[in-house]
Amino acid sequence: MQRFEPTTLRELRLSVADMYDASDDEAVHLRAANLAAVVRLTPYTMLANIGCGLLVLSSFAPDIPAGLWVWYAALMLVCLFALHAWWRTRHHAFVTASSKSVHRATAHALVLSGLWAVMTLLWFPSGTQEQQMGIATLVTGMIGAGGFVLNPLPYASLVYVLTYTLSALGALWLANKGAYASIAFLLCLYSPTVMIGSLSAWRKAAALRHAQVHARRQEQMLAVLLSDFEQNSGDALWETDVHGQLRHVSSRLQELLDLQPGEAAQNVFQLLAARHCESREQLRAAMQASRPFKGLVLSMQCRHGEVHLSVNGKSLLSDAGEWMGWRGVISDVTDKVRSNNLLRQLAHTDSLTGLTNRFMLREQLTSLLIQKQPMVLLTIDLDRFKTVNDRHGHSVGDEVLKAVAHRLLHTVADGAMVARLGGDEFAVALQTDCTVAQATAMGQSIVDALAENMQTPLRTLRVSCSVGIAISTGEALTIDDLMLQADIALYAAKDAGRGRWVLYTAELGALSRRRSTIERSLLHAIERGELALHWQPKVAIADWQVTGAEALMRWTHPVLGPISPAEFIPIAEQCGMINPLGQWALREACRVYDTGFAGLTIAVNVSSIQLRDSHFVAQLQDVLAAFQMRPQCLELELTESVFVEEAEQALGALHAIRQLGVRLALDDFGTGYSSLSYLRRFSFDTLKIDRAFVTEMLVKTDVQAIVGTMANLADTLGMCTVCEGVETEAQLNAVRVAGCDEIQGFLVSTPLPLDAFIALRRSWPNKPDKPLARLSGNAQQSA
Length: 783
What we know:
Number of strands: 21
Shape: elongated
Number of helices: 29
Oligomer: single chain
């Protein structure tokens, strides 16, 4: 029933109609409530009707008309019937009522009011003035009383009042007295007022009953929700009195607090103390603050282990505003707390080895550095660990890492923190004020421990390591500074040959800063014009003529001054700048070829990294086309390192270069990864013998034999042999005897700028006239 509080006449009519005829639950219950309100008054109303009938009889005594006795008998029957019906249902609770039952009540009201209407119409007009006064008083009173009593049933009330009113107006008209006209007018005002009042009372009563029904529904729904909340969720309601005593302890609350029989009567803080809840004082402080709180986690020991509860609460006040205790919700967050602890552990622990990870190490070292605590940090890197993964697979590599972690834990001192930084990098940190000797002894013990054979489930392996050591004596350092120092020492250990330790020193720091400066400056060296090519001639031993020149890169830094290629080229290869530098050298060499190199072959060094670039051959072709240079005049010098990684790809690139017509030279032959199989699979144009062999030829006869063998091999394969680093006439005679074709070195000339090289070539004799003596003097001056 939706129109429970109508505001217009139409809404009022629809509301009354809904109450009588609607079939929804609310209408059914509302009809029952209204019918019960009327039925409860049945004894009083019927007795009142019987009494009023006796007053009418007494007013006509002693000459009571026979018809009036018949009327009274009919009235008694109706009243007795109503009382009998009430008596049968006096203990019945009206929960629902049909539409038929309320319409039946309307019919009963019509019958009862009709009996009084008959009496009024028949005996009021002929009665004496006293009799008329008595009947009028009774009718007027019964109109008001009946309309009020029957207001829960609007149709019955309206029928009752309207029947009385019409009969009264008819009786006044039949009396035919002019004085009764004013009474009739007043009756016409009074009766509608009674009906309107009755409807208004019904409307308010209906709204009240609807509100009560809605409130009961909400209470029932709330009870269901609370019951479902406590039975099916991990939460429970808790409530205490002013003394902290638990009230309304549900089964879910008993389960969460692990309450035993009789324990619910204890103070909540006593319960928590018995369960070793250390955070109970936080709960006490929160409750004493008299402010709402939420998310307070209580960790306590129960019969089934440690339990974590999250508590929310707020003050419980009476209607008068008096504090009555606390009420709130307790949630079981045990799984959440355990998950968070596990996530925290995983976030701070390396999943493979179980060691502390980089983040936890940084966090703890940062805390110690802020406190200016002395410590020693050792960073450890496994040597050539990539080879283990490549040869044996990553599963074996993982077993090796686990074995390394286990060995480190059993090697370092007690109290040391062992961490895995990532990959094959580890670290050991020890909070102690140790000496340099103690720190280096620790580094040596780690090197020795990891150098021993490692037994994995699949095979036995030997893995060495390099160790970098950094010591902090409590000075103002950041974690990044300390780890950088250890890393610098680690790189120095690797550069020194691996399998050793290196202690960080100020000199190492200076070298690292210089390296960083070089690395940063390389990014802008080309655009700032700091690079230049110097040219070192190649001379044929047979006729002592210049046959070519090698382009050697030189860099003059605006702050550091001249930097050797032996220093900046490896840095360029590591920082990814070798491709731009190599491309610049190639373009620059081809650009200046026509300025003084006609008839010569110019050689440009190419890094193995450049050769592995899939675009290198196309870039080389573009350079040749851009400067219209004949490919036969260009020679690319490569070291044997091009075959170390991806040999097949390197061979493919070499064949593509050969197809362009560009010459190829194998530089520094005999010092690296020499393999005759590569010479068999690919025939270079030139074989350059490293200066180390030329230097030792005069003191070691076996070296002379090696150089001779190289020269014979090259001659057999159709290659030209060039000896590097020839500085004396004795060395020249030795390489000539060995059968080499050309030389390159200070005996001929140091690397020269372009203008000096052109001048040297112009002054070069067409026919050698004691060339050795003359050139030796030049070499001495150049040196």
